[in-house]
Automatic annotation (TrEMBL):
<dbReference type="GO" id="GO:0097053">
    <property type="term" value="P:L-kynurenine catabolic process"/>
</dbReference>
<dbReference type="GO" id="GO:0019805">
    <property type="term" value="P:quinolinate biosynthetic process"/>
</dbReference>
<feature type="binding site">
    <location>
        <position position="155"/>
    </location>
    <ligand>
        <name>pyridoxal 5'-phosphate</name>
    </ligand>
</feature>
<comment type="subunit">
    <text>Homodimer.</text>
</comment>
<dbReference type="GO" id="GO:0043420">
    <property type="term" value="P:anthranilate metabolic process"/>
</dbReference>
<comment type="pathway">
    <text>Amino-acid degradation; L-kynurenine degradation; L-alanine and anthranilate from L-kynurenine: step 1/1.</text>
</comment>
<feature type="modified residue" description="N6-(pyridoxal phosphate)lysine">
    <location>
        <position position="210"/>
    </location>
</feature>
<keyword id="KW-0378">Hydrolase</keyword>
<feature type="binding site">
    <location>
        <position position="85"/>
    </location>
    <ligand>
        <name>pyridoxal 5'-phosphate</name>
    </ligand>
</feature>
<comment type="similarity">
    <text>Belongs to the kynureninase family.</text>
</comment>
<dbReference type="GO" id="GO:0030170">
    <property type="term" value="F:pyridoxal phosphate binding"/>
</dbReference>
<dbReference type="GO" id="GO:0009435">
    <property type="term" value="P:NAD+ biosynthetic process"/>
</dbReference>
<feature type="binding site">
    <location>
        <position position="209"/>
    </location>
    <ligand>
        <name>pyridoxal 5'-phosphate</name>
    </ligand>
</feature>
<feature type="binding site">
    <location>
        <position position="86"/>
    </location>
    <ligand>
        <name>pyridoxal 5'-phosphate</name>
    </ligand>
</feature>
<protein>
    <recommendedName>
        <fullName>Kynureninase</fullName>
        <ecNumber>3.7.1.3</ecNumber>
    </recommendedName>
</protein>
<feature type="binding site">
    <location>
        <position position="187"/>
    </location>
    <ligand>
        <name>pyridoxal 5'-phosphate</name>
    </ligand>
</feature>
<feature type="binding site">
    <location>
        <position position="184"/>
    </location>
    <ligand>
        <name>pyridoxal 5'-phosphate</name>
    </ligand>
</feature>
Amino acid sequence: MTDFAWTRDQFHLPEGVIYLDGNSLGPMPKATPARVQQVMEPEWRDQLIGGWVGAGWHLAPERLGDRIAAMIGAEAGHVVVGDTLSIKIYQALAAALALRPDRRVILSDTGNFPSDLYMAQGLAHTLGNGTRLKTVAPEDVAEHITDEVAVLMLTEVDYRTGRRHDMKVLTAKAHEVGAITVWDLAHSFGALPVDLAGCGADFAAGCTYKYINAGPGAPAFIYVAPEHAGRACTALQGWQGHDAPFAFEQDYRPATEVVRMRVGTPPVLQLAALEAALDIWEQVDMNDIRARSIELCERFIAGVEESCPQLRLASPRDAAQRGSQVSFHFEEGYAAMQALIARGVIGDFRAPDIMRFGFTPLYIGPEDVDRAVEILAEIINWDLWDRPEYKVKAIIT
């Protein structure tokens, strides 16, 4: 049974802040500074370059990959950490397309995170062989999975609305027509139970700075199913993915299995922050996290709809079809969110009119939900958002 009082105590949370933006950047675990400091001194300070072996830096991407694999229902030895999520999506997509050389269509949906779509567009342009990206409405994906599709590329949970795709059903449908699947877990990992092997996923990638709380810019990870790992195309042939990186050969030879998906030198300090975060996650049960998440989201929806009828629910009403976030449409959503933040309730805004709230049970409880609803109601019902300073768009929203 997960002890949510214990998990809350593991995080640094500024006094007076209700943090409902962990689906964008998680707060800092209290153990992180000490773990990062350990890498700097004594490891880096005393071992210098010897830390790559003596402190285990070089193998951290595989070691942490195995810890993540256990959290996402993946086979050990088939997840590796490093680089950014966009790069990992690019790698997975390129490898998936190479497995279906006679097909040219990448199928995704209009709710997918734009960076994933940009990666697909860029790769299609680079290939120059007629490969194209096709996007359809999220609810229409299943009917467009046909035998012309090479790759089905989807984010399991929509970043704006929290709408959840059925990974198992859509993967099975893709396999029925011979397509390969690439799943983006950015808003799934740490938010709900994921079972990649059980769903038969081919490739998946995710980030660690949202629900996992590994810090800004924390590295991504990639999963390659066992049946593809030994032959997956390595579109980005970085030296860390070479079978013998320190032989410094002139020609590329991919490493065996998922290690071939390593690209550049791993970010050791950031990996240390990830390690500290995973120490917390290994003390919780994802089923408990999911149950508490649903409870908090339902409580928030009920409270907002009762007290703020001006807001319209943008997320699915059925909890089974929703991730761990709740979004509402409001014409003045940007200004309202700035007013909320000014009063200590931190969520975020997504164009054109979506107020987005993330619920992370590790550090958010029912009392936080009730207080956030109360403050939101005051702002909406008294038009407290209607001030010039709240309407000035920042670079990051």
